[in-house]
């Protein structure tokens, strides 16, 4: 087959392909337009959801920042222009509690809501409202966010220890040792458990602390040695 014939065949094939495509689009024009409209609508919906979620996240973070600013505001006359302060600690406590409660309620299930619940627990504990503190910390401890849940469990264990609920505190600390997080390390939970066990089980407390007292991590070693010093001398 010579070059001219092959070139002609290629040209005829291309023409047929183009013809078929034009004919197909002509026959299915309405369907193609319908699919295009659906595609645009789906894309618009996805972008809308993305924008909404982003705006919600910004709103949650702004609410959390505002609540923390209230919690950390100074007591007495404002120290400078534009700096918020409160006449009394009780007024600051009331304002912070309201801000964190509003956040936890409005954005329930979010990480920011869990952080708010944790702060509400610590604020209530500072006011000696132990039942309220326990309830808020339990809520935070059940969060799907492992980091903040572990922090709530550690604080709740300390609250139980202060109330003499040793078995409840021990259960929480052992769960943290089994599943440490970025916020609560295995060493931190172990030292807390050893300190809890000093009155009831000093031998186990020593076994927990001895390996940590010689660790290469200075901060952990110092903390372990500090708790070891509270133990009675072995007989």
Walkthrough of the structure:
The protein is mostly helical and 235 residues long. It folds into two domains: 119 residues, Alpha Horseshoe (Serine Threonine Protein Phosphatase 5, Tetratricopeptide repeat); 51 residues, no CATH class. 76% of the residues lie in helices and 0% in strands. The protein is built from ten helices and no strands. Helix 2 packs parallel to helix 4, helix 5 packs antiparallel against helix 6 and helix 8 packs parallel to helix 10. The longest helix is centred in the N-terminal third of the chain and has 43 residues. The radius of gyration is 32 Å and the shape is extended. The termini are far apart.
Could you state the CATH homologous superfamily of the largest domain?
Tetratricopeptide repeat domain
What would you say the CATH architecture of the largest domain is? Alpha Horseshoe
- How many helices? 10
SSE sequence, one letter per element = HHHHHHHHHH
Tally of strands: 0
- CATH top level label of the largest domain: Mainly Alpha
Q: Whole-number average pLDDT?
A: 83
| Shape verdict | extended
Q: Rg to the nearest angstrom?
A: 32 Å
CATH topology of the largest domain: Serine Threonine Protein Phosphatase 5, Tetratricopeptide repeat
What share of residues is helical? over 70%
Largest sheet: none
Distance between the termini: 106 Å
Approximate strand percentage? under 5%
The residue ranges in which pLDDT falls below 50 over 5 or more consecutive positions are 3-11
Structural class: mainly alpha
Number of domains: 2
